[in-house]
Amino acid sequence: MAITNKIENFRMQVNEAFVNKAEALRPRLLEKEVTPRRLVKILPQGEDYRAEYAAPAEALGTMPLGRGGRVCLDFGDHQVGYVSLRLTATGSPPDAPAWVRLKFGEIPYEIAADSSAYHGSIAKGWIQEEFLHVDSFPAVISLPRRYAFRYMELYVIDTSPKYQLLLGDVRCVSVSSADPAAVTPLPTTDPALLRMDQVSLKTMQDCMQLVFEDGPKRDRRLWIGDLRLQALTNYVSFRNNDLVKRCLYLFAGLTQNEGRVGACLFLEPKLQVDDTSLFDYSLFFVSCLHDYYEATHDAATLQELFPTADRQIELSLQELDDSYVVKDKNTWWCFLDWAEGLNKQAGAQAILIYALKQARLMAKWLGDERKAAAYADWIERTTQGALEKLWDEGKGFFLSGSEGQISWASQVWFVLAGVFPREKNAALLKHLIAENPPLSMVTPYMYHHFIEALFQSDLPELAKKYLQGYWGRMLEDGADTFYELYDPENKAASPYGDRLANSFCHAWSGTPAYFIRKYMQ
Ligand code: RAM
Fold it and tell me: Domain tally for the chain?
């Protein structure tokens, strides 16, 4: 699947003053030079692969590689950065160019997989692999691309029968705008909790670049659904609040037709909003601004960006039918989760109510009682509409779409929207777990919302159980950073039809630190 909800007659609207404010907040990237720790062999393990120690990194100097030779370097942890290396020839004078392939993998699988067999729906260009001809030695090669990886493989396609290659001076200048020194250590000695927090923060750190990227391997851009969760985690960890502010000004400064906030922004070759629009993602501008103000009390930013938030509400309200329920569509109009066949109507309605409540609070904070009252009115109508048209008292679930689909996503979002009191929400979540409707959750993004719903409904033990059962399993599977997609029962799962395109350091998966720091200490 690829997101195809392209806005019609797309044109970008630019607010220069907002973009300039964002650019003035462009962060300085912190750099760290990292060298490989050891050489490894990538071996099959069940349905997956693992890296096993082969030799110390120094052994590279005594490993001449000719046609078909290969070596895999392990940098010890996930890196996002720029790689350089030196190739020297040994043997007779080189009488032909060397032809080599370099592969970079966040996990061992990416090194083992045959990229020529890739059959995914999204671009093959995301696979981190380079083919190089080298004519003269020694050659110092600085690769221009930024890679996200822990493992790097050099495969020699050919030299000539008369000479071999020696690989040396491999280094990576790793970059991030997050400063680990800003994070307060957790007051616990529980090793499992410490590890989960650490991997979560590493995921965050590696996604924090010139903006909050969704994933440093793919898509390497600013998606607002990811931003919302990154910002929440950032407030209790790196506290780089200016980076959130920069992203808010970018979204508000580069909108789509009618002032709609886009689903994502590109930084290169120039700052621009994508032509993709998603109902829930536009509304998350409201949530991001609300959460930013709660964390910072930056009243000037709230004041300046509130009209952009208000516009997102206005645009969403145009999608309501006569019963004040969001009209369903058979296009890719709303995200929620990557679950195949998921109907989005109920989830979208819940997110609208959720955003309306945040907008009302912001209007109150700004002293705009008239606006606050107007929002209250809409909260009332959309809640009534949902209870009358979507809630099924007999089944004890919210139904979505013309087929009355029962999904995990719809129930979770209605809990977060707070249409019922806390006890009834807790009962709904317990009923959901007991009935286990087949349309379940497939992304850490959707799991995040489920766990948040459990904590908010006074079910902390269940929340911890699912946190451990999902992110804990990822750790058991060897995650150095948390993945874009994870199905403990199917390691090959991918929304793109091929796991090779998945991102294994993904923003929306980095929230365990938020739960631990907010609810578990
Ligand atoms: C994918 C990315 C991104 C997400 C969107 C909806 O392209 O994983 O993180 O926000 O989908």
Answer: 1
CB 238 near ligand 1, within 6 Å: no
In a domain, 507, yes or no: no
* Per-residue buried b or exposed e for 230-244, using 16+ beta carbons within 10 Å of the residue's own CB: bbbbbbbbbbbbebb
> In sequence order, which residues have a C-beta less than 8 Å from that of residue 260 and are 6 or more positions away?
7, 277, 282, 311, 312, 315
pLDDT in the model for residue 6 = 85
> Quick check: is 151 in a domain?
yes
Q: What are the pLDDT digits (tens) for 341-364?
A: 999 999 999 999 999 999 999 999
Which residues in 11-32 are b (16+ Cβ under 10 Å) and which e?
eeeebeebbebbeebebebeee
Domain assignment of residue 155, given as a range = 31-176
Please state, rounded to an integer, the average pLDDT across all residues of the chain. Answer: 97
Q: Is 322 helix (H, G, I), strand (E, B) or coil?
A: coil
DSSP string, 140-198: EEE-SS-EEEEEEEEEEEE-BTTEEEEEEEEEEEEEES--GGGSPPPS---HHHHHHHH
DSSP state of 276: B
Task: Please state the pTM of the whole predicted model.
Answer: 0.97
Question: pLDDT tens digit string along 250-305?
Answer: 999 999 999 999 999 999 999 999 999 999 999 999 999 999 999 999 999 999 99
158 in a structural domain: yes
Residues in the chain where the model's pLDDT stays below 70: 1
- The helix (H) or strand (E) run that includes residue 37 is none
What is the sign of the dihedral through the CA atoms of 327, 333, 334 and 339?
positive
> Which pLDDT score, from 0 to 100, does residue 521 have?
87
Q: Tell me the CA–centroid distance for residue 139 and ligand 1, in Å.
A: 38
User: Is the CB–ligand 1 distance for residue 335 below 6 Å?
Assistant: yes
CB-CB contact of 312 with 378 (8 Å): no
Spatial separation of the C-alpha atoms in residues 336 and 442, rounded to whole Å? 10
Q: What is the pLDDT of residue 82?
A: 99
- Beta carbon of 291 within 6 Å of any ligand 1 atom: no
HSE-up of 470 (CA within 13 Å, CB side)? 27
Residue 108: inside a domain: yes
Q: What is the CATH number for 102?
A: 2.60.120.260
Best residue among 223, 486, 508 to mutate for probing ligand 1, ranked by most atoms within 8 Å of CB: 223
Cα angle 384, 389, 390 (rounded to 5 degrees) comes to: 100
Residue 469: CB atoms within 10 A of its CB come to: 11
Could you tell me the distance, in angstroms and rounded to a whole number, from the CA of residue 488 to the centre of ligand 1? 20
Residue type at 95?
D
Q: How far is the CA of 368 from the centre of ligand 1 (A)?
A: 35
Q: What is the pLDDT of residues 132-143, one digit of tens each?
A: 999 999 999 999
Residue 92 has what DSSP assignment? S
